[in-house]
Design brief:
- 43% of the residues lie in helices and 14% in strands.
- With 361 residues, it is α/β, with parallel strands linked by helices.
- It folds into 2 domains: 172 residues, 3-Layer(aba) Sandwich (Rossmann fold), CATH 3.40.50.720; 168 residues, N-(1-d-carboxylethyl)-l-norvaline Dehydrogenase, domain 2, CATH 1.10.1040.
Amino acid sequence: MSEPALPHIAVVGAGTVGCYIGGRLQGHARVTLVGRSRIAAAVSEHGLHISDWQGYQRHVEPAAVMFRTDIGAAAEADLVLVTVKSGATAEIARELATALIRPTLIVSLQNGLRNADILRQHLPTHNVLPGMVPFNVVQRLPAMFHQGSSGALMVQADARLIPFLDAFRAAGLTLHRRNDMPAVQLAKLLLNLNNAINALSDQPLRDQLSQRAWRRCLALAQHEALRIFQVVGMHPARLTPLPTRWLPAVLNLPDRWFQLLAARMLAIDPLARSSTWEDLQAGRRTEVDAIQGEVVALATASGGSAPVNARLLALIREAEKQRAHFTGEQLLAILRDAASGDRPWCEPERQRGTKGPPAPT
């Protein structure tokens, strides 16, 4: 009896995260990577080298990697994983609408809250599920992709995922199926508020988060976001051992106490950096609009403002034009000044008096 055919999985937007996931899946599925010519050339020369913070190492020879620059290579895929930056979602959705030849299962593994909805708007005959990548991936050298922090892939629970579960499990990327993906994505957004701060620090994540001044910057951004979420009736899922509303207070703890708690919440190795830092290094436009910009948009829609996150957004936009770095104390002073100069939220009349998380100091 012949072995069942491996599922065909296309990773569209195969950059840092997409190449890592595709490299892990290689051999457990028929994988097609679709991305830019720059990465295609690196993979053609070097193959794919995949590693993680626990010591996992894998090299896939160039001849074994199917990397294409034409979206048509995804036409007959059984599953499409979308890993493009949020700003490119509408464009890639239009291309997929032309390329896919039959109704296809599509999973958005992107930052932000709105990408699955954008994909659905352009791909009404296909099945689109929101997903979430909780871990950090950094491109160390051409075609070398390293997972620098812990976490498990999450995706909207759906029976149509069943044919692919074994491939992900065998690749060490077990898909955790959830019935609360909007809340999961909201919690990821809260954690991603550190992306901009890490980029402005120009430090590895572990070094940055070991310093209280930098953590206080993140606490200000998270506290502001949590209050806005409360006003608009949005509730983040709990992705760490601690309740989400406690995160700003934990970030404000002295270094020694924070390190004791953080060791139980998230493993980060010395190589990990944020994707925003990586984009700035490469001269690419960042995803800050889908992260800090999302908090600002939610505040504006509720009749308020988000001055801390708005200031971080503006600083990253400036850094895209001309690189700039800060000390933790410098950035903290800038963000405190922003918070004191405007109300960090504006609660509708019916919401006033609602108790929220304690303000960070």
